[in-house]
Amino acid sequence: MAFYFNFSNVTDEQYEDKDNNCEETCDTLEHFTVPCEYILWNDIDLEAASASDVNLKQIQFKDFKIKYITQDTIANKIENLDLFSERETDLIPGKYEGGLKVWECSIDLAKFLSENSCIHSGDVVLELGCGIGLPGLLAYLYGGLVTFQDYNSEVIKYVTAPNVWLNTCVERQNSISEKCKFLCGDWQNIQEKYFSNGKDAKLYDVILTSETIYNRSNQKKLLNLMKEALKPGGVIYLASKVHYFGVGGGIADYEKLLKEDNTFDFCTVFKVTEGVERRILKLQHKKN
């Protein structure tokens, strides 16, 4: 039996994607969404992060060396997790959104944050589609109060939150729940439940996101959530490949959406032109 996390029943045939082209599948699954909820620190699994023989990766940024758990570390936690690596895609639309992989643009964004003093102590920060959580981890280490959001609760419980724990000194580990929140679910559900006229509306000074605009059908959801979550005067940093071949999304589509919506001014603040072209956009509310 193939592994799709413990969500709504969808047949294996709906996920056949041998050409790494998920546009048709994305359209088919548009009505499938996962529950959204804040995950309590008591529900986080720290066993793998606490093991003496844990297989950690490390990456050095300007001021911090970040440690993080690999997918192999938690392979025994989730049944048939290795089936992901046998597929010709890193995504199962509507089920698994790539949160167990370190994506290039998340490294770009984390480096940009560390080299440009983008986060200040006390900033309230939201990382959307966090996965491993490198940008959010840097924001946390710089003194930010960070909400980590991912589509899949399993990613939060087994990877993201344990990574926060790994990068916190022993004396401060008991205070993680005061500095961080962990949120899972579909962006539209999250917006409707927590942000539309809710307590979290217009809460965040900084919103971070990387590799999240590959699917055109989800771009509007992302933008709507950003509009509800960002404080007046806040800033968004969005890192993405210019184009996602076989999937259809990318920078041009999102810039078009931003222009049509007319809520944010935006500009490119970082780009890589060698190999697969990648950029970081900076978004801010339009001035009246």
TrEMBL record:
One of its GO terms (cellular component) is cytoplasm. SUPFAM superfamilies: S-adenosyl-L-methionine-dependent methyltransferases. It comes from the Eukaryota. InterPro entries: Methyltransf_16 (IPR019410), SAM-dependent_MTases_sf (IPR029063). Its EC number is 2.1.1.85. Keywords: Cytoplasm, Methyltransferase, Nucleus, S-adenosyl-L-methionine, Transferase. It is an enzyme of class 2 (transferase). One of its GO terms (biological process) is methylation. The keyword Transferase applies. It is found in: Cytoplasm; Nucleus. One of its GO terms (molecular function) is protein-L-histidine N-tele-methyltransferase activity. Belongs to the methyltransferase superfamily. METTL18 family. PANTHER family: HEPATOCELLULAR CARCINOMA-ASSOCIATED ANTIGEN (PTHR14614), HISTIDINE PROTEIN METHYLTRANSFERASE 1 HOMOLOG (PTHR14614:SF39). This is protein-histidine N-methyltransferase. It comes from Trichonephila clavata.
